[in-house]
Amino acid sequence: MRGPVQKTCECCGQVFQCGGYQCWCSRVTITEVQMDWIAARYQDCLCPFCLEKIASGELGPRSG
Ligand SMILES: [Zn+2]
Ligand SMILES: [Zn+2]
Fold first, then answer.
1. Where along the chain do its domains lie?
2. Spatial CB neighbours of 35, under 8 Å, sequence gap ≥ 6
3. E strands within the chain?
């Protein structure tokens, strides 16, 4: 059985757990545009804190 993997957030450098296939990050609701923004900048998923910021619009693509 595979447990969560420890990763370092490329955005803030914080260490976090990534659940891989059933990761928490798939539960965070982000738009396709935000997804593209992340994919263009980072190789892997970000920490919950940063992903939350992107989801809320504090980070990531702005309209326009
Ligand atoms: Zn982060
Ligand atoms: Zn993840």
1. 5-56
2. none
3. 5-8, 15-18
Scanning 1-64, the segments in alpha helix (DSSP H) are 32-41, 48-56
d(CA 26, CA 62): 21
How many angstroms does the Cα of residue 23 sit away from the middle of ligand 2?
A: 5
pLDDT in tens, 31-64: 999 999 999 999 888 999 999 999 999 999 975 5
Dihedral angle computed from the Cα positions of residues 54, 58, 56 and 20, in that order, rounded to the nearest 10 degrees: 20
Which listed ligand is nearest to 49 at the C-alpha? Answer: 1
Cβ atoms 54, 37 nearer than 8 A = yes
pTM of the model: 0.79
Q: Nearest ligand to the C-alpha of residue 20?
A: 2
